[in-house]
Amino acid sequence: MDPISIEKLSAMNKYSKSRRQQQQLVPTLTLYMVATFVLCLLLTSPLWFPKLWSFLGFFMLTTLPDLVTTFLLSPKCLFVVGNLIVAFLVGESRLAPKRELSLVNEIHEEHVKRNTAATIAKVETAMVVADHSAFVGAMEVREEVKEEKGEEEELHKRVEDFIARVKKQRKLEAKSFFDADR
């Protein structure tokens, strides 16, 4: 290497070393300043501590209760707090039916469909009776009555299953309510 390159390299190394030392100087200086400030506070505490204590006592005994009574007992704040409590209770309530309501709707819809289908079948049977002899019409009416009884029994069975599930759910809720109190 030529002497100029060596001189440039040594200058760059000196610059980077001085730069690193400057970067380390700032955090070190900050640490020493904070330590000095804390030490000064501790040494002068007999001078400012009683004043601080009396100010905190004044704030806690006079200013803070006034702020609490003016803000917390205002009608707007009470309205908001009351609504938050109601919203929380509704959200946490286990009485709000979720799945049972959909089952009731399904059973109702099936019952309505069957009744409309039965009504349409009765109208068709009446037309068949008018078209054919009375004997043929009577046979179809008997078959339709048997089908309706089968549908009613199935519907009755589903309703009983639903009632059993609701009772089981209520028992579980009551049990969990009493278990939560322990």
Brief sketch in words of this structure:
By secondary structure, the protein is mainly alpha-helical. 92% of the residues lie in helices and 0% in strands.
Description:
By secondary structure, the protein is mainly alpha-helical. It is built from five helices and no strands. The chain has helices at 3-43, 45-72, 75-92, 99-131, 134-180. Helix 4 (99-131) runs antiparallel to helix 5. The protein is elongated and about 115 Å long. The two termini are 86 Å apart. The mean pLDDT is 76.
What structural category do the secondary elements indicate?
mainly alpha
Please report the total strand number as a whole number: 0
Whole-angstrom Rg? 43 Å
The share of residues in extended strands comes to under 5%
Main pleated sheet: none
List the helices and strands and how they pair.
Blueprint (H helix, E strand, L loop, with lengths): L2 H41 L1 H28 L2 H18 L6 H33 L2 H47 L2
Keywords summarizing the entry:
182 residues; mainly alpha; 0% strand; elongated
